[in-house]
Design brief:
The protein is of the alpha/beta class and 210 residues long. The protein has 7 helices and 9 strands; from the N terminus they run H-H-H-E-H-E-H-E-E-H-E-E-H-E-E-E. Strands 1, 2, 3, 4, 5, 6, 7, 8 and 9 form a 9-stranded mixed beta sheet that branches. The longest helix has 14 residues. The chain is globular, with a radius of gyration of 16 Å.
Length: 210
């Protein structure tokens, strides 16, 4: 992913069903998931690797104040246009070390970014530290492709979170074709890690869907 020119990709980025969310059913599917993953009350959401801001827009529509970060200036420009007039700000920067200073957030949302980072464990520790008490880290990841698969398996991701977070929730997403614009056969999932543990021992993983 590091060798992709994301500025060049920005113009066509939203053509992928789960990027642009242009299909009303795909959009509703992602909106429903975000409603489950993000805090129930309006709060501050940090969307890292925000791309053109499609998930940021859904979060904003659900009442959250959004800060988006992306390394591509073209993506940031499109995200700003997409959320014009909303309580949202978009910053140019590294998702692994977002330029937010001492700010803390009620949720840190990261989709399809962690797998491509050189030190995912370090990024997770940093992101977890950006949460307010009671906040949550929301990670959407997977392993894509069959010939030369790329990505990060859920087992590895939960292993990286074990020393950092308390009890985490893993939600399988592969069996929901509405999220992707059609059926998929590879591994796709979300992990939600609350910042306050939940009274469980660190590293305990809830069963998928719990």
């Amino acid at each position: 992913m590091t060798d992709v020119d994301w500025d060049a990709e920005a113009a066509s980025f939203d053509e992928e069903p789960d990027h642009g969310l242009r299909d009303p059913e795909v959009r509703r599917a992602w909106a429903g998931r975000l409603r489950d993953w993000l805090p129930g009350r309006p709060g501050d959401v940090l969307d890292l690797g925000c791309g053109t801001g499609s998930l940021s827009l859904l979060a904003s529509e659900q009442g959250h104040r959004v800060t988006g970060v992306d390394a591509s200036s073209a993506m940031v420009t499109l995200a700003r246009e997409k959320l014009t007039g909303r309580d949202a700000v978009f910053l140019l920067g590294d998702a692994a070390a977002p330029p937010v200073g001492e700010r803390r957030f009620d949720a840190v949302l990261v989709r399809h970014v962690l797998w491509a980072l050189p030190d995912p464990g370090r990024a997770l520790r940093h992101w977890y530290g950006l949460l307010r008490p009671g906040g949550r880290l929301v990670l959407v990841e997977g392993v894509w492709g069959s010939v030369q698969p790329v990505g990060i398996p859920a087992e590895r991701l939960t292993g990286l979170l074990a020393p950092i977070a308390g009890r985490v929730r893993v939600q399988r997403l592969s069996d929901d074709p509405l999220l992707w614009g059609g059926p998929v056969a590879d591994e796709r999932y979300a992990v939600v890690a609350p910042s306050d543990g939940s009274g469980q021992e660190r590293g305990e993983v809830a069963a998928p869907g719990e």
